[in-house]
Design a protein that fits this description.
Four copies of one chain form a homotetramer. The first copy, chain A, is α+β, with helices and mostly antiparallel strands and about 425 residues long. The first copy, chain A, folds into three domains: about 10-110, Butyryl-Coa Dehydrogenase, subunit A, domain 1 (Orthogonal Bundle), CATH 1.10.540; about 130-240, Beta Barrel (Butyryl-CoA Dehydrogenase, subunit A, domain 2), CATH 2.40.110; about 245-400, Up-down Bundle (Butyryl-CoA Dehydrogenase, subunit A, domain 3), CATH 1.20.140.10. The first copy, chain A, contains eleven helices and ten strands. Chain A has helices at about 10-30, 45-55, 75-85, 90-95, 100-110, 115-125, 245-280, 290-320, 325-355, 365-370, 380-400; strands spanning about 130-135, 150-155, 160-165, 175-185, 190-200, 205, 225-235, 235-240, 280-285, 285. Chain A has a four-stranded mixed sheet with strand order 1-4-5-8, covered by helices on one side. In chain A, strand 2 (about 150-155) and strand 3 (about 160-165) form a beta hairpin. Chain A is globular and about 80 Å long. Chains in contact: A-B, A-C, A-D, B-C, B-D, C-D. Chains B and C meet through helix 8 of B and helix 8 of C.
């Protein structure tokens, strides 16, 4: 979906028009239907709101027009996704929520026509949800995907998958899973990981213990999922055998960035709440908004929001023009945005005082929604490690190519100290 | 209780012995009885554990021996309270939890013998809980106590209290409240605020709407409390009429500091959990504890914990020797500790990854417990404002007393730029 | 110069080509000619390098082609200016250094043809330098421009300027000054501030005491400048009488942003030095670059650099399309970049250890160069104040226009706490 | 000197009296004699002020009375050293400056009577200065002392030292050096490092190239020092052969902490300058000190200063009672204080605006003085590494001794998500 389809020849103007329409829809239709803090969106409301989004022409902004979406290219997703994320349920309503959004992205890039017909169509329309089964309990695949333990072995024309996954967001009630499993090499295919499309009613899949996390926006929870001699046909292979790790990278760069977009919308919401509060409160005889220590908090929020918006835009443009460079940049965007967004929500709580940590306002729940983002999709520490290594490598290549080494200390001894 | 009573002639050695005993009790007896994250301590378990604490000779460390406590002077509370706080239910079990602990402190300093007999005895023994009714809905008393709206007017030998309080921690199920109300001056008494001891079964008190906050350690919640022609006798006045604001300061300095102590214990617990995690996990083929980006987090935790411990010790010693200076210093301790403790818990979550934001570990709940401390007892912004003004005032007095003013820029123009 | 002139019809490709040429010139020609840390660029070397820049077709990137520059529109300055700033003397060599660059920008927008002929031509070609005389000693114009004390009064067809300026960067050796002075209103002109073009050899101007600051890159220092019955003709008025404050804003938005661009180049240089160091050093038996605590520093540098680059790009695009919004955004860019750039240089010093604080490496001098940027062009505190007020105002207007106020705490009391 | 000598039976009261006397001396006598920012203290002024300090009874606070000092035990040094450090030349004047102060400390603990007579007496009295020759150029001893390359070999009754040191603070003009060299083991002595007392007029010592660093308070610079067949007698061995690394630890714990003490004094000075500035400046019609964004800076300074003071006090007490634990704690104190002190000076600069980065005020020079402290005496990164490893080790031992491992995530699956 990084490339605009013919039908969706968007321009800055049409995207701005869609952004405004999305904004009106979210604020006018979705906000009044939000569940209370700590509660989840029920299915009936979700269905009703999705229909309304379709009617308003704002459903599935990132999905090609042929699959019922708005066909917006990736470099313009941010404006729209931020509007969606202004409500914690907005992305679900617009069907641009993780993990479905990333799965749609990958299916569009990698799936066969038959797979698209079967999986992408229903997913894009909101008829089913999906999950992405990669993470495993220690010592399996986590921060380090190479530690993958789940395996798939060929048996004739079939594959038999065995393994234990956890933190499989959205698995409860999902229609299908994209499963990452280790596969052996053959004469034709390399050893490595392979992705499989597996229906959740496959008898070899069992959704196990739920993991109760502090977020509430994710439909389908984050449970354990067990694969026990889960047998699928060769049509279940997504893309090529042995290319799973490569596809995972293709998926993760944009998926990481759309998290930034959606949660930046929630940061804007949080700041609006705090600004409303500081507008009408007086303390020590002064308007709260006029007190310098509140202004410090507000200004820092603005800086965090605008720099996040800017690094997202830069990364989105790169993902459109140079996916590999864009994926590298997405590490930087992910670390900056996940920390900046958390700070914004945290400061908004501070401005709202006791109400900020109560469910009288939704801010404490927003903090719970965004906290995990510093951990998910590669912990920030893992990303910083990767960022540093890429920087070192880039510079080393420059020096190897002839740029002068600049770190030799010059001895300058012409006079007394 | 800042002064040790004759019976409790503690030394460094006896306090260290009590600390060790408290540590053994908390880790051996209390930890195994902790409720699951998000759950509350039930009354039966609390009663059982309080009895065990009495049997172990560790109950009510800060309470004079004559009231059944251990009679530890304030400069040594920190060691003991940190051990108590290692469990989120530890302070309740040892009866050194807010708001009871601060109320005991104030009753001991201000109450009449009869009031002590009636209120302090039962409170110190754990038979009843209490609350402190000061905070009001906007635009009443909050960060700015002067905005107090609740009033008490004399009617003959009685007082009639009217007003609306909120965030009254511990009110549900409390035996009595210490109520702050505005009183008019008379020939004998100044206008200002006055404190009253009011039984919670007084028909003029109504515990109203609960406020659902993210913490769970506080028995009795944080509800609204309404005073509607609540009538009490003159024996209900705590201390002197018109001195309420002064007593509130007497209460708040130590109360603020004991929050630091208890929650620093929880920060130590959080770090222990993270250290345990990093000890046994491997990632990218290395022990997690050996990775520099984890070591950065661990080292910052250590620094936060030790500097918090140090500023608490400094403030506690000052409160013992010079309560006014100690109260000023408690603003600094409060801001530093509340932020440092939050950072420690937040980093521990980060080290524990997905489990950190799930209820598989208690860390996310710990973060919820300590988040409010940056807001309660005067928001950190309010304290920073006070800290800055005190610094300016201190320096101005020094200059007024003859110290040279040092901020005139000297013009040094002897040569070219 | 925000609009490209006809002759300079740049595209992304031509700008990229110019960027590469500038990069080659700076690294191949300018770096080898840099003075030692703490020393200044001498005039002869500057002249030689400026000629070389002209020969290489990289001189004055922001200047219209008709005045001898490369005619790059403002939204593309950043790529070029960052390459220039990779050397602390690069901007002087390319004639895109403050305050000349901002003065050229303003002259192009506001000056008469005759003024352009006389002042812009020589300035753009590097024949003369200039200064911008706005800041005054306390209690005059500083963070608060409205406090302007320097005055200009009409005497027939002339103006007589009196006042005392300081921190007038570049004044020593400048050919002319743009002077901000308070003027009274007449029937035709409003009261306010007016800008004047004054030759530095006017007998009424006296360059006074130098102010020795820690930076070295600014030719012409930061001296006091005195105006003593300094008489100029009416042709000296720049733009319209009474519009000085408005023009100052026109100048300051882009001027602030070009500081960000140039110094971001120096931040990249600093990181390169640190990366070189960490590439070849071993400590405790490991390569420095492989140690997590060094990687933390490197990754934070990358994040600071890329987010700075991104917010500059966003602001530059806004300045081109909507100067008023761009000027507001430039406050955010200025605060973020000035702090991020300082942090990058500071971390680079840390990575280089003792050499980092010696003149064996240029890093300590780089830190001195960039430190002032948190103070110049409006202190960061002043900008944060403005940022917060704009945020409050924006939100208030949204609410006034009908958006729901979101900060009323909802009372949700359906069950026990 | 950690133990008070009989003659110097200090109490809290006598130390407070000495602190007040030191304060009066520094502010009344030393401040007026300070050199301009960037200049150094000349020898004549130093001699005059040292005599005045002796006359005032404040000279050498840490030195035993028998050597002409005030005999203050280490747990009380902080109060006195902070007063000394209020002036950048104060520690030199009171003869409690690095590296002499640490050398005196070690000589007192380790030297023979004859060595004390010859070296400690003259050093303590201010007659000579000294240096500590440990650090070497890469890849020798730096952050990692084990990398020591300088060697000493026995030749009969003599030792011959060869090696290259650098950053040898105070070497220019010093009377003697304490030299760290690698020595081979014998039947009687272990292999390892050994310390030697070497007169600087030994023909085998050559003070080489100076290293121009940004600080100015250190008399004697930070030059390279070469040992070329430098021959000394066996009386030159300080302590026991092969124990050099152990003694270095003995020296470094307190030496690190006294840096904290002295520079905390300079931080207090910086804040005083900023408070003076904010007291008398008005901006935007308000007193600077009343603006919240200045109050934020001031409050953060107070918090940094008081927490630094507190962790120093804690560490000093530990060094007196348990030197090994104190040395470990000194890593934490060093990291916290070096960063906090730098922040205080940096914020003071910010409050003073343009004057802050000029030599019209001394703040920019103060920033240069304290910047190196994050690098010297073990870089903060090295200390954080050590702090993290100690924390991991402490916790592992606790768990090994029977404490329950707390990081197993509990599966709590009793209901739907």
């Amino acid at each position: 979906m990084t490339a605009a389809t013919p039908e969706a020849s968007h321009t800055t103007d049409t995207v701005e028009e869609l952004r405004q329409r999305t904004r009106d829809f979210i604020r006018g239709t979705v906000l009044p239907a939000e569940p209370a803090p700590g509660e989840r969106l029920d299915q009936a409301t979700r269905d009703r709101l999705q229909q309304a989004a379709k009617d308003a022409g704002v459903f599935a902004p990132h999905v090609p027009v042929e699959y019922g979406g708005q066909g917006v290219p990736i470099q313009w997703w941010s404006q729209i996704f931020q509007e969606a994320g202004y409500s914690p349920i907005g992305p679900s309503v617009l069907n641009c929520m993780a993990p479905d959004e990333g799965n749609m992205h990958m299916l569009n890039l990698v799936a066969t026509d038959e797979q698209k017909r079967r999986y992408l169509t229903t997913l894009a329309s909101g008829q089913v949800r999906s999950c992405f089964a990669m993470t495993e309990p220690h010592p399996g695949a986590g921060s380090d995907p190479d530690a993958l333990l789940t395996s798939a072995r060929r048996e004739g024309d079939q594959w038999v998958i065995n393994g234990h996954k956890r933190f499989i967001s959205g698995a409860v009630g999902a229609g299908f899973a994209i499963v990452m499993a280790r596969t052996e090499g053959t004469d034709d295919t390399p050893a490595g990981a392979t992705m499989f499309l597996v229906d959740m009613d496959n008898p070899g899949i069992r959704v196990g213990e739920h993991i109760h996390t502090i977020d509430r926006a994710m439909a389908g929870g984050h449970p354990h999922v067990y694969f026990e001699d889960c047998t699928v046909s060769s049509e279940a292979v997504l893309g090529e055998v042995g290319q799973g790790f490569r596809y995972a990278q293709v998926r993760l760069g944009p998926a990481r960035l759309t998290h930034c977009m959606r949660w930046l919308g929630l940061a804007r919401r949080s700041l609006d709440i705090a600004l409303d509060r500081s507008e009408r409160r007086t303390v020590f005889g002064a308007e709260l908004k006029s007190l310098g220590l509140a202004q410090e908090l507000i200004a820092q929020c603005e800086i965090d929001i605008e720099t996040s918006d800017a690094i997202i835009a830069k990364t989105g443009a790169l993902l459109a023009s140079d996916p590999r460079a864009g994926s590298a940049m997405s590490s930087i965007a992910k670390v900056h945005c996940s920390e900046a967004i958390f700070r914004v929500v945290d400061r908004a709580i501070q401005i709202c005082g006791g109400d900020g940590v109560s469910d009288g306002l939704p801010l404490a729940q927003y903090a719970a929604e965004v906290r995990g983002f510093r951990i998910y999709d590669g912990s920030n520490e893992t990303h910083k490690w990767a960022i540093a290594r890429r920087a070192s490598s880039r510079r080393r290549k420059t020096v190897d190519a002839g740029a002068p080494y600049q770190a030799d200390a010059v001895v300058r001894d012409t006079e007394s100290h």
